[in-house]
Each structure stands twice: as C-alpha cells, then as structure tokens.
Write a structure and sequence with these properties.
The chain is α/β, with parallel strands linked by helices. It has 29 helices and 29 strands. A 4-stranded antiparallel beta sheet has the order 6-5-14-16. The chain has a 4-stranded mixed beta sheet with strand order 10-11-9-12, covered by helices on one side. Strands 27-26-29-28 form a 4-stranded mixed beta sheet, with helices on both faces. A hairpin with a 4-residue loop joins strand 5 (177-187) and strand 6. The longest helix has 34 residues, at 896-929.
C-alpha cells in the first residue's frame, strides 16, 4: 500500500469488494485454536454465534442488514479481544417459499407439480436452489459479514438432514411425537398447514351477522346470536352462554336447531363466553375456531369439519356442499333471510388472518397432522432461564418468554409439501402399523411386509431450524467442532421470533444435548420508517438496502442501524440518517488523511527528530505534555473504559454514539486543530504530537472497526504503512495497549488487531479534562458570539481573558485559542484579574472565566444589554430554584453527595450572576461615556 496514493476522498465502490476479498484470502474469518488443527487447547473458551439462517429464496432487506451488522459487530469485537471466534453461516430451505417459486416456474409452462410427480419436482427444486440460492449469501458477504464460510450449512444438507431424522425418531421413541386430529392454520391456496409465523393479521372492514337460533320444539322462542362467519353455522355443535348471564339461564340444557340443516345442538354453559360481544350467546364451531375447539374438548362436543383442503364445503354442509366458503356464506345467509332467521347486519372491523406467502385468508381447520408434545420440553426450557443458565437481553422479554412457555400448545410439525425433510414414517398396508426409523426401511418392522409407503408430508421448516445451533456443528456425532464450539455463546435475533425459533432451539438443545444451546439471547427490534411506521412495499416506505449501499456505502448503512439500536427496541431508519453517517465516514477519512499526511511530512519540519524511545519515555512520564495533549490522552483513556463497559453490557448503540462524538467533536474538532500548530513547531514537540495523533487515531479506528469495517481497514492500513515508513518508525504506545509482543506492534490487518484494553483511572485525568474544557468552552462561547453578531471569519478581534488561577494555562494555549476563536494575537491579553472593566468591550462569562471582546463597529450596545439581561434573568431563576430546594426537606432526605452537588450548582450560578451584573455595569458605563 502506497500512502502517497491515499485519495482525497473515500471511494467505497473501489474499496469494499477488494478489502473483503483480502480478508477471505488471508483466512482472517477462521477461528483461532481450531479443534481440527494441531496445537488445539480445549481449555480456551471460544465465542460462537450461529447465524439466523435466511431463507434460500430471500433477497436482502433491512432486517437482514440489522442482524448481520449486529452479529458481525459482536464477532469482530471478540476476535480483536483475542478470543477464538466462530460465526457459522448458512441458509434455510424455506419449504413453502421455495416450493412456491418452483410451482410458479411450472405454471409458466402450464404444468403443475402433480402432473410431473414428486421425484421430478424435487429435481427442479434443487436446480432452483443451486441457481438462485447463493444470491442472499453473496449479499450478506457484501455487508462485511466475517463468517467462516468453509463451515457454511444448509438445512437440507446431508448432515443436517441426518440430524433432523435423529431428532424426530428420538422424540417419537420417547412418546413426544404423535399423529392425530387437532385444529391448525390451513392455507387453502397452498393446501398445507402453516405455522403462526406464516400468518399475518390485518384489520379489514367486515360485517357482524345477527340471527336467530330457534329453540327445539318451540316456534316462538329463539336465542339471538352474532357471528362474523355465517358459513361456519353449518359446523356448529353447541350454543354456549356465560354462567352469570341472567338472560339465557332458562335455556340451559335445552336444544336449539341449526338453521337450514335442522340439526339439534345443546345449549351449554362456559365461562369463555364474552358477555359484551354480540348478543352474549356464542355459537360453538369446534372444527373451525381454536377457542371453540377448546370448548368442545371441555364439554365432549363432536367436531364437524365443513370445509375441505380447498376451503369448499364438504358433505356435512348439506345443500351447500361443493360451494366455495364465501359463496356458501352468501347463499346460506340468503336462505336464512328467506326463513325469517336473520335479525340484522352491522359493519364490523375484523382482524383477518392471511397467508404470508399467498395472501389468501387462512382457515382454522381440524386436520390429522403430526405434533410434538411440547409441555415436557417447555419445563426444561423454563428452568434454563429461571436458573440463569440462559440470559435474555433485554430482561423484559423474559416475562414474555415465560408466558408463552407456560401456556404452550402442542406443535404441529407436518406440512403438506414436497420440498423439505420428509417425515420418516412408513405405513404398512398389511398390518396397518407404522415403522419409524433412522434409515429408510425396505420392509415393515412388525410383519416384514415389503408393502410399505412413506408418509407424503414434510416437516415444518422450524423443526430443522430448531436444531440449528448443534446440527451445524456435527450433531448427532461428537465432532471436534461440536465438542469445542457447542454450546454456542449468544443467539442474536429479532424479538418477533422469540417464540417460534428461540424457545424451540432452547427446548431441543436441552432435550438432545443436555445443554442450553447458548448462554445469552440478544433481541434486536424491528426496522421502521422515520415516522415509526412498519416498512412495507404496500405502504411504499420500504428502503432497499442494496440501493442505499450502492449510493452511500455499506459502512454508512451499518453504522446507522447499529448506532440507532438499543436491545429490544424498534429502530426508525431513513435515507437522511444514512446520508448523515456517510458524512461521518467522510469526516473520519479526512481527519485520518491529515494525521497520515502529517506523519509523512515529519521529516520536513524544522529540527532533528529525537529518538522514538525518548518520546515514548516522555509520554510514560507525562512530561512535557501540552494541556491539549493531557486532555486528549485523558479523554481517550476514559473512552476506552466506557466503551469496554458498554460492550460488556450489550449497549452497542450507545458505545457507537460515544465513539462518534469523540472522533468528531473532540479529536477532529479540537485536538487535531491544535496539533497542527504543535507539529509546525518541529523537533520533539512535532514528534510527540505525531505520536499522540497516531495513538488516538489508532484507538478510534479499532473502536470503529466493528461498526464500519471497510473504511477503518483501509485507513488503518494507510496509517500503519505511513508509520512504518518513518526512520525510525512510529509504533503505538501504551495508550492503545495494542502490542501483543515487542516484535509485533502493528498487526497484519485491523480485522485481527487487538482491541484497546482499559487502564485504571489516574488522579491527573479528571483535572486535565476539567482544565482544558475551560479553554474549549471559552472558545465555543467566543465562536457563538461571533456567529450571533455575524462577524466574518476573516476578521480577527481583540480580546481580554480574565482566567484567575487558570491564567497560566490560558497563556500556554494562547496561540491555539487565538487560532480557534479567530482572535487578534497582537491584541490578546490573558490575566489573572482585571482591576476595572474595559470600556468598549463586550463581556462574556464562561464559568469562572470572563472574556471581553472588542467588537467596535460590529454590534449594538442595546442588543448586548438585552443579551446580558436575559442571561442574568435565567441565572436568577436557577438561584431561586436551588435556594428553595436546599431549604426544603430535600436537604435532609437526599444523599449528602447529591445535596453537595446541588449546593455547588447554586454557588456557580451566584458567581455567574455576579459577573453578569458587573458586565452590565461596564456596558452602562460605556453607554454613558458615548
């Protein structure tokens, strides 16, 4: 790398792919202490993440960017900490989504899957996966994901398929898997059961239909009932009332007649009935409503399915058999109206369940499926969190987790699809028994008949995903990877799949390995637009991350999502925010370029360079530091401590914000500007300043690297090369704690460089920060005044600074103050005290510092008097507030340090008010003299 060629601006298009290729070629993503290599030490604890496998059909969206960026941040941090680090990548076969894509391709040729058969369909599915399945993987690479791609897994890989079959057979042998009828979500369009996660609810306008349930044997008596789905009347098997509803007590135990079908059903009592909904009487349709199904189980009611796989009415629907469910709704209601059974219709907002994939309305149906008995598994999963074996971040989701597992229902794991893990069950046509084996059988294990057929269904995609943390490492075999890297360390994912995936991984991990699959669950929030609205193509507010990355770079997008995040909270994102962070990346580039250029030109500054060991010795002894040096070193040491604490507590967003503020608002805006003058002095001062610039920039780039890996790697390479090209070379000092050994102080690449380690706070640090902050605040106050008065930057103004005990420090920094505040160096006076207020000067108060600016011909005395009066009024309000507070019971009840702090505030406001009054008097004297 030639530092002479460092561009003036950062071109991410020329950088990102080149740097990622270099990382891969040098195998930086491989874990240290690999159990498959010689010299492995099993006692060294690794850091491991299993990536939430994206669907093989997927294309990159902001949700992917969120979890990839967050997990990559964690991985890079621990890798730089020197921990053996493994990030296992992979993708999910996405049963429904992939099958839909293949069926769409067939439809273009006027073919269906049934016409070509299962074997040919699966061949086409694998061909589709090979052609399109790598797209999402390449897009994840583009995000900078530092996964070990040699360990990439796919849920239909041979190894994972073996794990799936092993898990199924074990659960079956323990009696935890069974086949039977239960109510499930049915997709009439896909003709398969679907999971709750594949159902999306939307509020849509509908109707509430009121009708009469005639009492059996009485033409004059009826019970009014309301429903949102009249077609389900055909499957009613009871009418339920609340035990405390006085309106219908007399009907308990009698029968009512199902409209049109004339079938009698009983009137029963159940506390589930909502007295406020409709008429307070509930029609019970166990075959097509999960709550009604539960009522039927409690009361021993029959279950009638009145819809088939295509949601057409079965023979149970009498005259409506063969009709589509919505056609039957209209026809049945018309017939009921003709029979004088309709009372009224009302507009009503309905929470409609729709298929995530097909969009059609999901139908609750009783269907014979395969289920897992989850309650025994849930108990262990609850204990793992309650006992602290697994920690959920943020903690508030622990209650949500408990609530779900304490009320868990059996899990429907069968799907009426062809793409997926086929259920390992064979039915004997001779003895009607089932063979469940790990290997495909050739005959029935009970009667030895060869007339056996495999179950046509496949397993729910979530079944294989539930095994992901250990199946990807080789389970059920005890491979070196499984023995060393399992249990994994952290599972990072969205809070929306805490139930569907995280809880199931915990249940299966404990069941099959006897260990929790991870120690920590870190939940990130959902991505929303800048107004907090859910992103959706239908809302036209979705942001395409690929377009944003093309326009603004990957680092800017990553930084936006990471710094905007807090555990478990949603993130509002806009392109404007990404643009702002692109500007931050440019700022980092520019300040780094200045430092690198300064290093390159050190040989050109006046004076001979001292020995670098002498410079390091000076830094260690804190001798010959300028006030600015002491301030930036103290602030850097504080930053290192704060960032480590925030990372340890998973506060990555706040850590990123602090790094941002430090680099932009402290290092770039203040120290770098002062360093320009110090470097220009030449000799020891120039080299010592260069050393500090290198140290602070080196730390800043290391801290930024997990957030913005591409630009930091590029800049760090330039910085390293520039330092090594010096004679003697510059090397990082103790500030960064970067050196592993004396022989390797600059690592091969930033991706494998050491993370800055915190040091204990020393007595001098607070004072260095407090003192230099007076200079910063003074310069800032002068700048603000110049801006308020519209004084041109080119105009240098005279000033008097009354600094009291800090006067000597202000004198040492006079050149920097004059440069930063645009003061006239020939007419800049710094003094401890001032016997009398200068005439013709505008006063400023900055804590204990007074500043007088000569703004002749630039401002109005009247305007300045107004400003001072306003500041005095604000100070007086604070004085009164604090006085009242300290004279109240607060002074007795609050902790002494808190009371002392409020007292110190009061003293500062009193001192400021005194100085403001003096300045007003000075201004009045000036006014009278004029």
């Amino acid at each position: 790398m030639d530092t002479n060629d460092i561009p003036k601006t950062y071109d991410f298009r020329d950088t990102e792919e080149r740097i990622y290729q270099n990382w891969e070629e040098n195998k930086y993503f491989k874990p240290a202490n690999d159990p498959n290599q010689p010299g492995h030490d099993p006692a060294i604890k690794p850091f491991v993440i299993s990536i939430p496998p994206p669907n093989v059909t997927g294309e990159l969206h902001l949700g992917h960017v969120m979890f990839v960026a967050m997990e990559d941040l964690m991985i890079r941090y621990h890798r730089m900490k020197g921990v053996p680090t493994l990030w296992v990548p992979g993708s999910d076969h996405a049963g429904i989504a992939t099958q839909l894509q293949v069926e769409k391709s067939l439809a273009k040729e006027n073919l269906t899957r049934d016409e070509i058969g299962r074997e040919r369909f699966l061949e086409l599915s694998w061909a589709w996966k090979e052609k399109y399945g790598g797209i999402i993987t390449q897009q994840i690479r583009r995000l900078g994901a530092s996964c070990d791609w040699d360990r990439e897994r796919f849920t239909l890989d041979a190894g994972l398929s073996r794990a799936v079959r092993e898990a199924f057979v074990r659960l079956y042998e323990k009696g935890l898997i069974y086949r039977g009828p239960r109510i499930i979500n049915w997709s009439p369009g896909l003709k398969t059961a679907v999971s709750d996660l594949e159902v999306e609810y939307s509020m849509e306008p509908g109707k509430l239909y009121y009708f009469k349930y005639q009492l059996a044997g009485s033409a004059d008596e009826h019970i009014p009932v309301a429903t949102t789905r009249p077609e389900t009347i055909l499957g009613d098997t009871a009418l339920a009332i609340h035990p405390q509803d006085p309106r219908y007590q007399k009907y308990i135990g009698r029968n009512v007649v199902v409209p049109i079908l004339k079938r009698e059903i009983p009137v029963i009592v159940d506390e589930y009935v909502d007295l406020e909904f409709g008429t307070g009487a509930l029609k019970v349709t166990p075959g097509h409503d999960p709550n009604d199904y539960a009522i039927a189980q409690r009361h021993g009611l029959p279950v009638i399915s009145i819809l088939d796989e295509a949601a057409r009415v079965t023979k149970e629907g009498g005259p409506y058999a063969g009709q589509d469910r919505f056609e039957a709704r209209k026809n049945l209601w018309d017939d009921m109206r003709a029979a004088n059974l309709v009372i009224k219709e009302e507009p009503y907002m309905l929470n409609i369940p729709r298929s995530q994939r097909g969009g059609e309305i999901i139908e609750p149906m009783v269907s014979t499926q395969w289920f897992v008995k989850t309650k025994p598994l849930a108990e262990a999963a609850l204990d793992a969190v309650r006992s602290g074996q697994i920690r959920i971040v943020p903690e508030r989701f622990t209650k949500v987790y408990y609530n779900w597992l304490e009320n868990i229902e059996d899990w429907c794991i069968s799907r009426q699809l062809w793409w997926g893990h086929r259920i390992p069950v064979w039915y004997c046509q001779e003895c009607n028994k089932m063979t469940v084996t790990r290997q495909d059988p050739t005959n029935c294990v009970y009667c030895s008949s060869e007339n056996i057929n495999q179950d046509p269904d496949v397993l729910d995609t979530w079944f294989s995903s539930a095994l992901w943390p250990f199946s990807t490492l080789g389970w059920p075999d005890e491979t070196p990877d499984y023995c060393y890297f399992y249990p994994t360390t952290i599972m990072e994912t969205g809070y929306d799949i805490l139930f569907f995936w995280v809880a199931r991984m915990i249940m299966t991990g404990l069941e099959f390995t006897g260990k929790p699959p991870f120690q920590t669950v870190y939940l990130h929030g959902l991505i929303r637009d800048e107004r907090g609205k859910k992103m959706s193509k239908s809302y036209e507010n979705a942001i395409d991350p690929l377009v944003v990355m093309d326009d603004l770079g990957t680092d800017a997008l990553r930084f936006t999502l990471l710094v905007g995040s807090t555990p478990g909270n949603d993130v509002n994102v806009s392109v404007k925010k990404v643009e702002a962070n692109r500007n931050f990346a440019n700022k980092v580039w520019n300040v780094s370029r200045f430092v690198i250029t300064s290093i390159q030109h050190l040989a050109e500054v006046k004076g001979q360079p001292p020995d670098t060991e002498f410079i390091k010795d000076q830094l260690d002894k804190k001798t010959d530091w300028t006030d600015a040096d002491a301030w930036i070193i103290a602030r850097t040491r504080t930053l290192v401590r704060d960032i480590e604490r925030l990372f340890q507590n998973h506060q990555y967003g706040e850590a990123g914000r602090q790094i941002y503020d430090f680099i932009w608002s402290e290092f770039a805006d203040w120290y770098v500007e002062i360093a320009k003058q110090q470097v220009s002095e030449g000799g020891q001062r120039a080299y010592q300043t260069a050393q500090i610039l290198v140290d602070v920039l080196d730390i800043g780039l290391r801290f930024l690297h997990p957030y913005t890996p591409f630009i930091t790697e590029e800049l760090w390479g330039f910085l390293k090369q520039a330092c090594l090209e010096l004679d003697p070379p510059l090397i990082p000092t103790h500030l960064s704690r970067a050196a592993k050994t004396e022989d390797q102080v600059w690592e091969d690449a930033l991706v494998v460089a050491c993370w800055p380690e915190p040091t204990d706070q020393e007595d001098w640090e607070d004072q260095a920060v407090t003192h230099f902050s007076l200079i910063i605040n003074t310069v800032r106050a002068i700048r603000n005044t110049r801006a308020e008065k519209n004084i041109q930057p080119s105009k240098r103004i005279p000033a008097i600074i009354v600094a009291g005990e800090h006067a000597e420090m202000f004198r040492r920094q006079s050149a920097a103050i004059a440069s930063l505040a645009r003061l006239d160096t020939k007419h800049l006076s710094i003094t401890e005290t001032l016997p009398s207020k200068p005439k013709g000067y505008i006063p400023l108060v900055v804590g204990s510092i007074e500043v007088y600016l000569s703004l002749e011909d630039t401002i109005s005395i009247g305007e300045e008097r107004t400003r001072l009066d306003k500041e005095l009024a604000e100070a007086s309000v604070q004085i009164q507030r604090l006085t009242n507070l300290l004279n109240s019971p607060f002074a007795e009840k609050a902790p002494p340090p808190v009371v002392q702090k409020e007292g110190e505030k009061l003293d500062r406001f009193k001192e400021a008010a005194k100085k403001l009054k003096n300045q007003i008097e000075s201004l009045e004297g000036k006014s009278r003299s004029e």
